[in-house]
Amino acid sequence: MRPNLSHRLWNGRFFVTLWSDDGFEWLGTIEGDGQILYSEPRIDPGVYRFVGSPENDGRIDSWMRQCPPLRETCDSDWHDMIQFVGTTGYSNDKVDGYYFKYGLYTVSDFDVPFTAFHKDYWRGPTAASIGLSDPIFK
Description:
Elements: E1 5-10, E2 13-18, H1 21-27, E3 35-40, E4 46-51, E5 58-65, E6 78-86
Antiparallel strand pairs: 1-2, 2-3, 4-5, 5-6
């Protein structure tokens, strides 16, 4: 199975893509890019709320800050990036559960090394439980 929510760089552009039961129905295959939820010519720090569901009650909310890359602190306000409601997962007969997976993956040939930067990962039942108190994190 494809990961439900993926961050991808294609020719230097940042994409957020979604795979779900609906994606398989649209394409009839696991090949392809999935549903593109967001694209941006640069990468900024972001926060996600992901509710995985094979039904129409799933949701993906995401917020982004406008900060220089690799800065320890950022004084920018948060902005809406993705607001998606619908099928965000697979039926139980296809997968056992959801997980967070981080790595460099490609379906294309490459001949140069890849480098990824990642800072912090928190998980919790509410925004406040992971230290996000700004009102935008409804």
